[in-house]
Every structure is written in structure tokens, then in C-alpha cells.
Amino acid sequence: MPKAKTKTATANIHAIVGSDEARIKRKAAELAQKLAPAEAGEFGLEIIDGAADNVDGAANAIRSAIAALQTLPFFGGGKLVWLKSANFLSDDVRGKSANVLEPLEALGDILSGGLPNDVTFLVSAIDPDKRRSFYKTLTKLAEIQVFDELDLNRSGWEENAGEIVRAEAKKRGLKFEDEALALFVLSTGGDSGVVANELEKLGLYAPEGAITVEQVRALVPISRAAVIFELGNALARRDATLALSLVRDLLDQGETAIGILLATLLPTVRSLLLAKDLMERHRLPRPQAPFAFISTLNRLPAKETEHLPRKKDGTINGYALGVAAVNAHRFETNQLVRGMEACLQANLQLVTTQLNQELVLTEVVVKLLKD
């Protein structure tokens, strides 16, 4: 999960690290521009390329950083030394080599001893090994920011990705409609590099800075997860024509009927039923956006939410419930109960009979959405 944390220690030592390479490069470049003393001009920034091909290259980069830190700034204007895109802090051949560890220890000693007030050090590193002594030195001395890739195998990653996308969009003067944001998140899969590229593209086609779901559909390559999301949304909006079209598309793409049923149809109906029940029992207002419902759930007594789906960290997996809450008013409770029964019947038919798969799924959609 991408995260940024800052630990204030020594004001002139900075580190930007993690597994999200695209974000690390972008954030490091932004910070370097901010830290480099403007009055020193081109002499105020010294960049050492830390993307080493081998052990010797890594050792040379570290020694160059040491030399730069020990060289006084020209004309007394101060300087920034940036060890850029260091790839030798990882748990690999370069990171384990004694020829790298020795100068790295020397660099750590220099940082621990304190830098002159007019010298600033920045290191950006991809996927560092947090067990190494140099990394531990950074955590003690540096203002450190950590940007890790999202773990798409963990439930609730969409919420974290949505926060990142909104922040990046805001920097560009862009704002998503709620459904457009959800579709964009699933289409880009939490990949920060893809997010940046697709936001640049959308910015050219959003004259007022407002991004619609139609623009996302037209301009952003759609992923399997996004198609599944679209199917769930079509069901929740009671759009039978679109839902049946998406079922057919997924089958044509090689998805199995049982997979579509268990990954989309059943979870959508279950979420609608759970949201409907919560909203009726606790008189909860219909949320304007899925994310707003998450905070509403968190305010309910624990005993009222203990049956809800959870993330691995134990918190409520509220995003799907939020999507359902936006649309739950379209259904009566008995319709959703019939939908659950239809999913059960379809499951039995798919695993015990040779019925046409599309026909079985079509019957589920029709039973759920008929008046």
C-alpha cells in the first residue's frame, strides 16, 4: 500500500524510498527542486546516479556521494547532494557485497557525524532492505518518506488507491465524478506510473477539470477488474441491458461463468442486501458517494457491524458497501433475497449440469432486476 511517512530528525538529510518506483522518482525530483539552493545556480545541485549495473558501479556511486558531501559549496551558496535512484540498498548481490557495504558504512558514519549547515543530502532508493544498518541509520537521521506499491491481493486497496488518485488529480486541477474515480482506480490498478500517464491524457479532454465516467471509459484502457466493477455497477443501477452485455463480454474474454457469479453477481447482491439492512435498521441516509458511507459505518456500534466483511487488518471493507448504499434505494429487501436465492440456484446449475453458461447467468440478472 502506498504510504508516506515523515520522521523529523536532521533537517538537511532526506530520504525517499520504497517499492513504488514511479512515485519515488517523481517525488524525489520534486523535493530536489525544492531543496536545491536557488542562489547557488547550477553549482547548488550535485547529482550522483545510484542506478548501478554491478558491484563496482555501486561502490563508485557511494564514494562519489561521500566526496560530494565532503566538498565545500562553491561561493558559499550551499548545495544539495542527491544520490539518485540507488538500487544497491536492496537484498541482492550488490546490496550484500562487502565492496558495497564498506563504503556504505562510511557514508552512514559521515551522516551520523552531522553535515555542514550549508550541505543537504537526499537519497532516493528503490525497494531498500529495511534490515540493513544503513537503512536504520536513515530512519534515525533523515526526514524519510516511504512510497510502497499497493498490495492488490489485500481487500480494501481501492480506498487507498482512490486517495492517491484524488491527490494526484488535484495537483493537475482535475476532479473526478464518484463513479469515474472508481472506474479509473480499477482500470489503472493502483500503478502510479499508469495513473500519472492517464491523468495527463484525461487533462487534455476535461476543459473544466471535471472528469466524467464517459471520459474514463473512452480514454483509459479498461482492465478485467474494471469490467467486473462495471458489471456490479450495472446491476446496482438496475441496468439490465448493460449488465447482460458485460456478462457476454466477460464470457467472450474467457472468464468462466462460475467465476463471474462468485466474483461479481453474488458479492454485488450480498453488498446490496447488507447495505439495505443497515440503512433501514439504523435509518442511515443515502450517501452521495461510496467513500462517505465508510465513515458512517465506522460510527455504528461494533456489535452492529461485526457481521460485515473485513480487510486483513480487521477494519470494515466498506468500499463495496458504499457502492451498494448509493444504489440500495432501487431495490426492495425481498428482491435482494430472491437475488441471493437465484445466485445459489445458478451455482448448483453451473457445477452439476451442462446448461448454457450465459443462459444461467442471464437468468440471475433477470430475476434480480425484474420488478
Architecture overview:
- This protein is an alpha/beta fold and 371 residues long.
- The protein folds into 3 domains: 13-146, Rossmann fold, CATH 3.40.50.300; 157-222, Helicase, Ruva Protein, domain 3; 227-369, Zinc Finger, Delta Prime, domain 3 (Up-down Bundle).
- It is 57% helix and 9% strand.
- It contains 17 helices and 7 strands.
- Strands 2-3-4-1-5 form a 5-stranded parallel β-sheet, sandwiched between helices. A two-stranded parallel ribbon has the order 6-7.
- Strand 2, helix 2 and strand 3 (79-86) form a beta-alpha-beta unit.
- The longest helix is centred in the last third of the chain and has 25 residues, at 257-281.
- The model is unreliable at 1-8 (pLDDT under 50).
Short descriptors:
371 residues, alpha/beta, Rossmann fold, Helicase, Ruva Protein, domain 3, Zinc Finger, Delta Prime, domain 3, 3 domains, five-stranded parallel sheet, two-stranded parallel ribbon, 17 helices, 57% helix, elongated
Model regions low in confidence, pLDDT < 50 over at least 5 residues: 1-8
- What class do helices, strands and sheet pairing give? alpha/beta
Q: Helix segment count?
A: 17
Separation of the first and last Cα atoms? 42 Å
Number of domains: 3
CATH topology of the largest domain: Zinc Finger, Delta Prime, domain 3
Shape field: elongated
The description of the largest β-sheet is: 5 strands, parallel
Number of strands: 7
The topology string of helices and strands comes to: EHEHEHHEHEHEHHEHHHHHHHHH
Q: What share of residues is helical?
A: 55-70%
The spatial strand order of the largest sheet comes to: 2-3-4-1-5
CATH class of the largest domain: Mainly Alpha
